[in-house]
Amino acid sequence: MGLPMALRLKERGIDMSVFDRSPQRMEDAAAHGLGVAGSAADAVRHAGVVFSTVLDDAALLSLVDGPGGLAASMPHGSLLVEMSTVSPGASSRVAECLRAVGVRYLRAPVSGSVALAEQGTLSVFASGDAHDFEEARPLLAGLSSNQVHVGPGEAARVLKLAINMMVVASTSLIGEALAFAERNGLSRPMVVDALNASIVGSRHYQSRAESLKTRRYGSNGPLRLVAKDLGLALRLAEAQSLTLPIAAHCQAAIDRLIQQGHGDTEVTLLAD
Length: 272
What we know:
By secondary structure, this protein is mainly alpha-helical. The model has no long low-confidence stretch (mean pLDDT 96). The chain contains 14 helices and six strands. The radius of gyration is 20 Å and the shape is globular.
């Protein structure tokens, strides 16, 4: 989602420099008129506010605390707005690292899809200092239709994992509802439309309606990333002696699909 989010900020006249570890993504950014930096350190050296979105815990820790990382490169008093889906534990380590060098830290994971990022209609759930949130909010408003401060510390990280649990569980359940309806002679497309028009309709189902109807699946929200996020939630719950049977069942189903070669297929495949 990094490129569409950067383009949204560019449209609002924000002066920025971008960096990605992928040479192809750097080429794409340059082709869209974004200023590209030679390294993450070069991108942030004079920035007052920095946005980051990465794949996982390891990537975040490397970005912040690795050689030439953000902790060593961001100006004192600047603000990191970190938008990835990562574990509260890794995020807490980042907070400690940044606090030691006088860099402020706002956890701001997003809920949505690439299409919503392109439209600027993501939802942002932020935690950390409320003043930092208010400072970042005008920029976040360029990326999202909802910006909510949910509390201190790692609250937003926990909330994002809870939201992703709901995405997975509801996708699995709509698959059962569709199978039941089809077995009893109902049209799959009609049932999808009916569900979206009913009390159980949601932005998630609406965004997946076409793939649910046609069983043609893309790569938006791939199962390999869904498995990563669900695994973070399950490991945290296990450490707290909390049992999440529905989430565990969904994780097992996702693992089977990945083993069958569907790791890059969108999460809606769970409903097939």
